[in-house]
Every structure is written in structure tokens, then in C-alpha cells.
Design a protein that fits this description.
Elements lengths: L1 E2 L7 E4 L2 E4 L7 E5 L13 H13 L4 E5 L12 H18 L1
Parallel strand pairs: 4-5
Antiparallel strand pairs: 1-2, 2-3
Helix pairs in contact: 1-2
Length: about 100
């Protein structure tokens, strides 16, 4: 949920935490759950993805981006239901650990 109630440039409230834009630099961890990730680090196994997410969290990530579709040049579009399924499996696995 985005709110602009702190006099800064807005913020984000997630699971009881508040990220106030402009107060400091936040770090976003990236977990690619695609077989054809742009960066070549796609993790299709939900347990491995969750471990990777947990490691990023423990190393200081403030929030995580779980990607379900490649953005590499020339990639083939993925059906929305497949993308949602990938992200949901990744999200559920990560939430158990983080």
C-alpha cells in the first residue's frame, strides 16, 4: 500500500514495516523464478528460490522482487497464468523463510 502521508515522497507499508521514500536508500533483492532469466540466474525450484531470498534478506535486503517473466531481449512472452503461478509459488516459498 503506497501512502504519501509523511511529507516525503511517499512510502510503502508492507507486513507491518514502513519504508519512507527519501529517508534513506533501500535495497531490493531480486529472485528470478524463470527458466530464461535475463541475468542467467533463474531459479525454478521453490526451495532454492526461498533459500536465495532468505540469503538476500539476511544480507540486508529491505524488500524482495520475485520475477516470473524474463525481460531479456528477444524473450517469448509468457502466458499470464504461467507468470502468476511462478510468482505465487516463489512468493509462498519465500514467505515461509523470510
Amino acid at each position: 500500500m503506497v501512502r504519501a502521508d509523511d511529507g516525503l515522497r511517499g512510502g510503502l507499508a508492507l507486513r507491518g514495516a514502513r519504508l519512507s521514500w527519501g529517508s534513506r536508500t533501500y535495497v531490493m533483492g531480486i529472485v528470478n523464478v524463470t527458466p530464461d532469466s535475463f541475468s542467467g540466474d533463474g531459479i525454478e525450484n521453490p526451495v532454492r528460490a526461498a533459500r536465495f531470498a532468505q540469503a538476500q534478506w539476511e544480507q540486508g535486503a529491505d524488500l524482495l522482487d520475485i520475477g516470473g517473466e524474463s525481460t531479456r531481449p528477444g524473450h517469448s512472452a509468457v502466458d499470464e497464468t504461467i507468470e502468476i503461478e511462478r510468482v505465487e509459488i516463489g512468493r509462498a516459498s519465500c514467505r515461509e523463510r523470510v
